[in-house]
Structure formats: structure tokens, C-alpha cells
């Protein structure tokens, strides 16, 4: 897909992965509508994106609220145009044992991660199908492929995104609308808040492994848009772990808890090589 001149919608655009995706697309000439709850931070991202010479509409929206998403999408159509690209990057996480997570936190994860993705697709997909052109990238997670002991609510919401994406990919094949699901591993963002995600209980391989930059994840989003990958995992180890875990769940346990040091060293070597090659 050629990106320059396209109209894109990015959720969760005020920080982290969403922010990096918005700025990456702006650099490539994509006109943008940005959604997030933080009005101030969203305005700052919009200003940075506008500096690349594209039209930018900042919309302070909670994607968990269907009526607000629908109203925002109507505003996008009237002020920017019918979107060609949708990147769902909004999310919320609490990593704690099941009994320690409140009902409200479970619901907030499902609302932000799954229902937020659902609402934007529901609002924008009809326009893409009518024009037989469009691309949707849903940002799931490595824990949307395999769950950790402390990710019951988070993994449930991200597995839901994975299932939705896979079903839509098959349903829309041949329609002109491509659907991709991206599964990043650990990323250097404010996600790792010690209050919501206490280090205790997180496997060493997850806790100490090198973290991706938001810019690296944004590149993977762009590859999905360019090449139409139905599924992409980054780094490669996330996909490998998911496949081994699917074959036999105990393999996943062994890798996460028992093979930390050799696996961690291998990850570090691969990351250093990729950096020298300019991939990361």
C-alpha cells in the first residue's frame, strides 16, 4: 500500500506506540486523525505531526465509548476525509494475580483493549469496504499469543483482539481491505508502571530482556501496511515462544522460567546484530 496522501486514524496517539506510529506515518505524508484521552499530550503530538506538512485532526476521545467513537469518525469524514488506514494502538494493562485485580480493572482492560478496537473498526470499516480500499492494523501483544500467570485480564483482552483480527482477515480477504495483527514483545513505554505491573511474578525473560523502542514497533506497523502481513510478531523470539507454547504449554514454562540466561544472552546477541544492521 502506498502511504503518501492517504488518510489515517491512530488511537492511543498521545503516548507510547500510538505516538510513535502517528509521527512515523506523518513523516511519510499520511494525513492523520488522532484519538486519545489525554487532550494536552494529544495536542503536542498533533503539533509535531503537522510539522511534516500533513493535515492533522486531534480528537480527545475515549475509544471505549461507542457513541463518542462514532461521533469522532463523523468529524473525521467531514474535516479530513474518509480514512484509508486505521491503527488501533490504544491500550491499558494491569499485570497482577487474578484475585488481586479488581472487577473494574478487568473491565477497563477489556473496554480499552478489545471494545476500543471493536468500536473504531465498526465505525470505519463500512467506508473502506464501500471503496474497496483500506488497511487495519490492530496492535495486540506477545501476551495476546501466550499468557503469563499475572496477565489473566490483559491476555484475555489481547487474545480477543487477536481472534477478532484473524476472523476479519479471513472475512475481508478479496474485499480490498487488509487486516493485520501485530504482536510486539516488551516495549520501552510508560506501560511498565510498577503500581499496575509489579515486577514480582513476571518471568525473568520478560522482566530483563531488552525492550523494543516505540519507533521499532511503528516500523512494524508500517511493514504491515506496506506488505499486508496478516500476523506479525516482533522481536522474532515472541513468535517462536508462541509456537512452542502452542505445541506444549510446558515448553513455554521452561523457556520463561528455566532458560532465562541462555535465552537472554541469545536475545542480546541478536539485538546487537540487528542494531548494527540498522533494523532496530
Which percent range describes the beta-strand content? 5-15%
SSE series:
EHEHEHEHEHEHHEHHH
State the major sheet.
Answer: 7 strands, parallel
- Mean pLDDT across all residues, rounded? 89
Number of helices: 10
Description:
The protein is of the alpha/beta class. The chain contains ten helices and seven strands. It has helices at residues 16-27, 39-50, 66-79, 103-131, 152-172, 204-208, 214-227, 236-247, 249-258, 260-276, and strands at 7-11, 31-36, 56-60, 85-88, 134-139, 177-184, 231-234. The chain has a seven-stranded parallel sheet, sandwiched between helices. Helix 4 runs parallel beside helix 5. The model has no long low-confidence stretch (mean pLDDT 89).
Short description:
The chain is built from 10 helices and 7 strands. The chain has 280 residues and is an alpha/beta fold.
List the helices and strands and how they pair.
Elements (H helix, E strand, L loop, with lengths): L6 E5 L4 H12 L3 E6 L2 H12 L5 E5 L5 H14 L5 E4 L14 H29 L2 E6 L12 H21 L4 E8 L19 H5 L5 H14 L3 E4 L1 H12 L1 H10 L1 H17 L4
Parallel strand pairs: 1-2, 1-4, 2-3, 4-5, 5-6, 6-7
Helix pairs in contact: 1-2, 1-7, 3-4, 4-5, 8-9
Name its key features.
seven-stranded parallel beta sheet; 7 strands; 14% strand; globular
